[in-house]
Amino acid sequence: MALRQFGAATAFALTVGMTASPALAVTEIQWWHAMTGANNDVIVKLANDFNAAQSDYKVVPTYKGNYADTMNAGIAAFRAGNAPHIMQVFEVGTATMMAATGAVKPVYKLMADAGEKFDPKIYLPAITGYYSTSKGEMLSFPFNSSSTVMWVNLDELKKANVEIPKTWPETFAAAKKLHDNGHPTCGFSGSWVTWVNLEQLSAWHNVPLASKANGLDGFDTKLEFNGPLQVKHLEKLVELQKDKTYDYAGRTNTGEGRFTSGECPIYLTSSAFFGNVKAQAKFNFTAVPMPYYPDVKGAPQNSIIGGASLWVMGGKPAEEYKGVAKFLTFLSDTDRQVYIHKASGYLPITKAAYEKAKAEGFYKDQPYLETPLLELTNKEPTENSRGLRLGNMVQLRDVWSEEIEQALAGKKTAKQALDAAVERGNTMLRQFEKTAVK
Amino acid sequence: MQKQAIFQSKLLPYALVAPQLAIVLIFFYWPALQAVIQSFLLQDAFGLSTTFVWFDNYVELFRDPAYFEAIVRTFVFSFAIAVSSLSFALLLAVMADKPLRGSMLYRTLLIWPYAVAPPVVGVLWIFMLHPSLGIIARYLRAIGVDWNPLLDGDQAATLIILAAAWKQISYNFLFFLAGLQAIPKSVLEAAAIDGARPMRRFWTVTFPLLSPTIFFLLVVNIVYAFFDTFGIIDTMTRGGPGTSTVTLVYKVYSDGLLGGNLGSSAAQSVILMIMVIVLTGIQFRFVERKVTY
Amino acid sequence: MVEEEGFRRYVAHFILWIGIAVVAFPVYIAFIASTQDNALIANGQMSLLPGGHFFETYYQTIFVGTSGSTREPVGNMMLNSLVMALLIAVGKIAISIISAYAIVYFRFPFRMPIFWIIFITLMLPVEVRIYPTYKIVADLHMLDSYAGLALPLIASATATLLFRQFFMTVPDELLEASRIDGAGPLRFFWDTLLPLSRTNMAALFVILFILGWNQYLWPLLITTRDDMQTIQVGIRKMITTTDALTEWPIVMATAVLAMLPPVFVVVVMQKLFVRGLVETEK
């Protein structure tokens, strides 16, 4: 074991290149993450810059596999008594992390204890709201945020003589036209079926997904997404699935290649899809806000975020927390946020960074990079659009996807499927409520 | 069954069994015990709050129609996999048992899939039948089949069964071949002299004599389908669409994922262990019989 | 021999070739895909003949790895799989043969209970107790280590039973003879019993090596570090990439590489393999 760790440390030192020689008493801060490829480089650079900027602390980033793997590893490590200081957890793990009082150290407390200057008002509320209590106390630090946007294949739309749709009825009509003109297998589609068609749809139209402000105000939340709007939307998808005007592309983002290959000319997925589109699409593209139903009062509201945030794990000495707090302050720096935004395609989390990127003309030739920000800041968030906090969200999403699949396969009506999804989901939420540390 | 000639030593035998005993106790009995304990508890993911809930996890399970569906589905899968794989393997073994030229070559070409790992099998098959890029899927659509295992549960289940059966062909083939070769030729010759046609000879003589082998393989195949299909399911369908490919083992895995519902997952483990012990018991009763060919 | 008419013989040949085709087709497709361009595959335009990317793809797969999800060259994954398979095979044989020896050739208190304790583990795969085992390995700080990968899979009785049955068939005269030579229990084991067990050990080794190499769920759970991934886990990570395009040629090349060692073992050591299979399952 020791040998392995030594090997890993050496390898790490080699990949990172030896930074400025550290002072004698350097405190290590472990940071577990799930970033690959170019985004992994961003993480390594952030750690190096921080380590070079001061000499008391050393941030050590470790890649732990995909989001689920990382969280699994973190939970296991905590149970085995050697959790990292900082762990990157995807948004659906938020409730699990939050319920674990004692396993995590809330960010607002960390900052106060460490005596770091910390003003929650400098952050974009649409982003931090997701990770804060109803009182506005920040629990985890938003690191890589994205939102749902509609990716459009401009060349194909032009060929079929279709305008970029703004509302759902327009989108259905456009998809129909595209389907009949050269896209028989897929007029439009999307990834993350529940995120797009339940979670975002509800927030975007200011209707509740669950009671108690979607769970933000308490674990005794009940699911409520079997209302008329969501049922109507799913019914439409079921109808269009029949002739492949809409074609289901799976629960996660495995179907995204169908957009870049040109098969699906309209595709709803994360704004973080940008890097792949840019690298692989051989056509003109853009990303526009999600469609809405114009007959719903107040729509569009604002979208909610996806992605991940940094959780600080509990039970570490105060001295080490000081270093973590310093690191979070370092990450909040405007220029650094602009760098993260530009290098990774994820959203800036401070108002200042957003303004600065705008002032630099960053969105001039790439307007689609601003789309998710415009969606998030479209209106002041409401009870229904601050974010979600549901326990066992990973399993919940699986259950919802199962039911949606049943509807799309014609085994259940849309109403039956959503009723079942709500009922099964509520059972799981009650189970979670029982285990949540009060 | 006792050896007459033995050694006398006080400590040596204990030293000899110690390594295996230690490993079995630490990595088998301890986790099994943990599973039993865990199945009476309700815990959050981080193990911070623990409530003792007696049989709640089991009660929840047996109240949950999804669990019964998974049980039925697991047995249906197992049976479908066993029957399809066994019949195809038997056909091949009967052919390979004939005095043909190149029968050794045939054998070599038929046994190697045994060595292919379940996740690899899953990847191979998903690739051939992937709705948007699979070669076979393309032909299926060309002849008018609406092939979409992402949404059609029955198609997804078929996919899993096909892939799992494919992997089992070689194993079954080998055992059938061994079974066929153990049948005394004189019996077959006697039947031939009586004027029985080859087909009839097979059904009246060979098949009954093979029945112990068939039964044995049925049990082994069912156990295989219980556990080893996990890798195939995980790489092909992840239990979807809907829950149409969630088997018992897959459920143990997915319910415990991310500390989601460890109590229920443990309860399912305990039930599975009991099932397997029963299956093993059946097999051993049968192995006793198998010796008396 | 029962007579075979000519026509029947042709039918038999024909059926066997169909069987071989069924068995080989998926693998053929995998190999073909590994030599083609990813864009063709992704758009569903793959041909049924090999493409020209063989060297390029395999070089990238073995020495570089994918650009997105696994970030680890497959060569390294194969090494991990190999170490794991060898540890499992050798470990299981080693601990089983000595405990079987103790149980057969000695009388000692608790002999039968110990035998039964080991015997019950025969059929319960690690999958059914996966999370508790995971926790124990975590408590022992064995996550991401070869020990953690191999030890839980060594905990099973198949090999012990096999050796026990084999030792029962060894004539007692051999023991008497070595006693007369003045050999103690360890000498007898080393000089007489081990050489006799050679074929059995080899046969078992083939089976266990394949078993170890093909492990999936366990390594998937307990390895979190890139450099500890086994090839089976790597494949799964490659097809669940967050990249827009799964790099199919690399996935398929990995699949082909993952098949090579165990298939090679089966084909080359066919006799031992068949024997090991039929013996262990009895």
UniProtKB/TrEMBL annotation, chain A:
Source superkingdom: Bacteria
A GO term from the CC aspect: periplasmic space
CDD domains associated with the record: PBP2_UgpB
Pfam name, any one: SBP_bac_8
Function: Part of the ABC transporter complex UgpBAEC involved in sn-glycerol-3-phosphate (G3P) import. Binds G3P.
UniProt keywords, alphabetically: Periplasm, Signal, Transport
Family: Belongs to the bacterial solute-binding protein 1 family.
Native organism taxonomy: Bacteria, Pseudomonadati, Pseudomonadota, Alphaproteobacteria, Hyphomicrobiales
Signal peptide residues on this chain, from the entry's feature table: 1-25
Protein name (record): sn-glycerol-3-phosphate-binding periplasmic protein UgpB
NCBIfam families, alphabetized: PRK10974.1
Keyword Signal included in the entry's annotation: yes
Subunit record text: The complex is composed of two ATP-binding proteins (UgpC), two transmembrane proteins (UgpA and UgpE) and a solute-binding protein (UgpB).
Organism of this sequence: Bradyrhizobium amphicarpaeae
Places the protein is found: Periplasm
Keyword Chloroplast: no
Automatic annotation (TrEMBL), chain B:
Topology within the bilayer: Multi-pass membrane protein
Main location: membrane
GO biological process, one term: transmembrane transport
ABC transmembrane type-1 domain mapped to chain residues: 71-283
Keyword terms of this UniProt record: Cell inner membrane, Cell membrane, Membrane, Transmembrane, Transmembrane helix, Transport
Intracellular or extracellular location(s): Cell inner membrane; Cell membrane
Family matches, as SUPFAM superfamilies: MetI-like
InterPro entries, A to Z: MetI-like, MetI-like_sf, UgpAE/MalFG_permease
Xref: PROSITE patterns: ABC_TM1 (PS50928)
Function: Part of the ABC transporter complex UgpBAEC involved in sn-glycerol-3-phosphate (G3P) import. Probably responsible for the translocation of the substrate across the membrane.
Record family assignment: Belongs to the binding-protein-dependent transport system permease family.
Name of protein: sn-glycerol-3-phosphate transport system permease protein UgpA
The species this protein was found in: Bradyrhizobium amphicarpaeae
Record lineage: Bacteria, Pseudomonadati, Pseudomonadota, Alphaproteobacteria, Hyphomicrobiales
TrEMBL record, chain C:
Keywords linked to the UniProt accession: Cell inner membrane, Cell membrane, Membrane, Transmembrane, Transmembrane helix, Transport
Main location: membrane
Pfam families associated with the record: BPD_transp_1 (PF00528)
Location in the cell: Cell inner membrane; Cell membrane
GO terms for biological process, alphabetical: transmembrane transport
PROSITE patterns: ABC_TM1
Any one cellular-component term (Gene Ontology): plasma membrane
UniProt membrane topology term: Multi-pass membrane protein
The organism's place on the tree of life at top rank: Bacteria
Coiled coil residues, start to end: none
Oligomeric and partner information: The complex is composed of two ATP-binding proteins (UgpC), two transmembrane proteins (UgpA and UgpE) and a solute-binding protein (UgpB).
Recorded family membership: Belongs to the binding-protein-dependent transport system permease family.
Functional summary from the UniProt entry: Part of the ABC transporter complex UgpBAEC involved in sn-glycerol-3-phosphate (G3P) import. Probably responsible for the translocation of the substrate across the membrane.
Protein name: sn-glycerol-3-phosphate transport system permease protein UgpE
Source organism: Bradyrhizobium amphicarpaeae
Taxonomic lineage of the native organism: Bacteria, Pseudomonadati, Pseudomonadota, Alphaproteobacteria, Hyphomicrobiales
